[in-house]
Amino acid sequence: LLPLLTYFPYFAAWANSLFEDNAEYGLGMFVAMRHRRERLIKLVDEYVHKMELKDASEKTETEANLVHLLMDWLEMKDDKSDKCTLLFDKMKPLFEKVMGEDKTTGIHIPLINKIWSDRDMFPKLSQWIVGGDGWAYDIGFGGLDHVEAFEANDVNVLVVDTEMYSNTGGQMSKATPAGASVKFAVGGKQQRKKSIGEIFMTYEHVYVASVSLANQAQVLQAFLEADKHQGPSFIVAYSPCVQQGVRPRGLDDMVEESRFAVDSGYWPLYRYNPDLVLESKNPFVLDSKKLRKEVTSFLQRESRFINLKKKHPEVADSLINKMNGDVHHRMEHLNQLASGYKAFDHEDDATVKVLFASETGTAARLARDFADACVLSHVADAMDDVDVEDIDGGTTVFFIATCGQGAMPQNGK
What we know:
Elements: H1 2-7, H2 22-53, H3 61-76, H4 83-99, H5 111-117, E1 128-132, H6 133-139, H7 141-149, E2 156-161, H8 196-201, E3 207-211, H9 216-228, E4 233-238, H10 254-263, E5 270-272, E6 284-286, H11 295-299, H12 303-311, H13 313-339, E7 352-357, H14 362-373, E8 377-382, H15 388-391, E9 395-400
Parallel strand pairs: 1-2, 2-4, 3-4, 7-8, 7-9
Antiparallel strand pairs: 3-5, 5-6
Helix pairs in contact: 2-3, 2-5, 2-7, 3-4, 12-13
């Protein structure tokens, strides 16, 4: 084992299995990593204890320095930052010097060598499971639910949602929306899409986010928050694909298509962070509060909806009307989740309006903190989520952080 670890000193960076076993396979990697790290913690604790019992004259300066660093590591071992990695970088030459030329193997291997054999567990590693919607919403949902159900599973999940089984030819999945014409539902899918994010929010300990390239700052913020969260997380990302038939320029329009999906309410952006409850804050943050375009205009951009209109116009009209109603109902519901935690009888009772324009999320966080602390405010909104008439001469506090060469952020224009 030791000679092998000399050449391969790091934990597996990537591995994959059959897509239906994705959750179980990824959880297995996490459990193995957790077991090895717990073993390392036990060995380090034992080594530090033994060295502390020694007289100062019995320890070399190198050993004393190493023990000091190991004690620091034990204090911050669960810190999700690069602190553990930086500490190990300092320990590495000390380990090599303390071990020296000792090549003892078998049952008599020194304690310091046992610690060294698990050295790839010194950093606080982040475990991610990545899969598509066919796996997450459908064939692998049972395994995924098992991962998310237990608070001890500090595992992050990213679902690349193309709203169909893209890798096997474009078959319908439970992520496919009503009205889409795909394989196994050529006449138009009748059922609504599963709201998988809200399903996992009911556990209350799972970090959940819905993201899109339409708002890249929100994507980055969601990934950072998910990784920082002590417990399971779930991020679902809107992902245009070839089989959706995006018009007019296919996937060259991916970013524009993502922006249209968000602006029309077809794909809402939100984050549910259980850690905010500990700060007496609303854990649900809606990052797309306003419908700027009609969802019917968005549907006319994709072949999977256009084809149904051509073949079965009456069915298409019925399903599109149903989706339009669903979008408005969902946005009303999400807005209620985002704003219904303060003790105002009516939103208009809040006399202070808080608005922000932020490209990186810093001004947005400050604005939300201010709104939470101010007893006269309701919630903080992006400037482009509010019409000028809504300000109506009242007290409004702005948080604006320019970007680039002093340009106005996208959500402040």
